[in-house]
Amino acid sequence: MALRLTIPESPSETDRDAVIAPLRAYNIRQAGDPRIRPVAILLTDEGGDHVGGLWGKLVYDWLFVELLAVPEEYRGGNYGTALMQGAERIARADNCVGIWLDTYEFQARGFYKTGLRAVRRSR
């Protein structure tokens, strides 16, 4: 049976699941249970409201940081560094070999220049 390429106008979760299902099955056959576990480190203001933070997941022996957000009014307060240090603690506790963080240049230029150096020095 031949396959054809289809490009949906508005991809759905069902479309995503169609891509993930065979990949997940293959990965499990090759490497076992990925032990996927969500990770969240929240920034909480004085009123108890969550205003930003870090969201990711542990998969196999990696921590993938999917979202990292510090509200503009709190930038420069080392919160990004604290979030990444918290992620490193979680990754170490789970025996991860690394952390994957992916951003656009315009999102994190200042953080990379100052914050990540502080994270590296703190090891």
Question: Which labels suit this protein?
Answer:
alpha+beta, 4 strands, 24% strand, 41% helix, four-stranded mixed β-sheet, 123 residues, single chain
Number of strands: 4
Instruction: Report strand %.
Output: 15-25%
Secondary-structure element order, N to C: HEEEHEH
Q: Strands across the major sheet, in which order?
A: 1-2-3-4
Characterize the largest beta sheet: strand count, sense, and whether it forms a barrel: 4 strands, mixed
Shape estimate: globular
Q: Which residue ranges are poorly predicted, with pLDDT under 50 across at least 5 consecutive positions?
A: none
Discrete helix count? 3
Average predicted local confidence, pLDDT = 90
The N- to C-terminal Cα distance equals 54 Å
Rg over CA atoms, rounded to whole Å, is: 18 Å
Broad structural category: alpha+beta
Fraction of helical residues? 40-55%
Characterise the protein shown here.
The protein has a four-stranded mixed beta sheet with strand order 1-2-3-4, with helices on one face. The protein has three helices and four strands. The chain has helices at 13-31, 79-93, 105-121; strands at residues 37-44, 50-59, 62-69, 98-101. Helix 2 (79-93) crosses helix 3 (105-121). The chain has 123 residues and is an alpha+beta fold.
